[in-house]
Structure prediction request, 214 residues.
Amino acid sequence: MQDLTTESLALGFGRCKLQFQVPALSEIEQVEDLAGKKIATSFGSIAEEYFGRIDIRLGTKTVVEYISGSVETACALGLADGIVDLVESGETMRAAGLKPIGTIMLSEAVLIASSSPKKPYMLSVMEQLKSRLAGVAASSKYILCQYNIRRTDLTLARKITPGRRSATVSSLDDKEWVAASSMVEKDKAASVMDELQKVGAEDILLLKIDNCRV
Prediction:
């Protein structure tokens, strides 16, 4: 499958981890401690390949049992010594009395494309789709910060809001002042406003970005 497709764009959502989880009170502290034991998972092929390498190295035989749904209950029901399952926040696993001891991979939603497209005339459509999705992804991550500041303090403000490429600066009727706007990351917006205020910025606004092209 990997030879047939290429990753075209990371979409920035659906992030999770494929992890090894064992009972919180278990003495098992690392993945190798599960070698030779029973593992429950919905990702049988991945788990078998992973433990296959460990078994060869340690001379053990790990049993991987396929379970569809509610994998986190397998240990409590006595069906397995550990599990391999997708974890987002980890709350479900903690509620089931489990703890993480290792991560196989990190995952997120991505746009994929064929490595050998059979319809070349569709390439322009795919590029347009990619551009639109990238715009939506960026708009969910960034917010527009606008403020007024004295020209003499603009250099300090630009260090706080450099923008993706450069801040937009416009003159005001009062020649000593300018208006500036810049895209900033949403999760840093409050701190950015605080820092701008410290260097003399006024009328600081945050504006939602519904869509964009970046």
Notes: The radius of gyration is 25 Å. The chain has two domains: 5-107, 141-207.
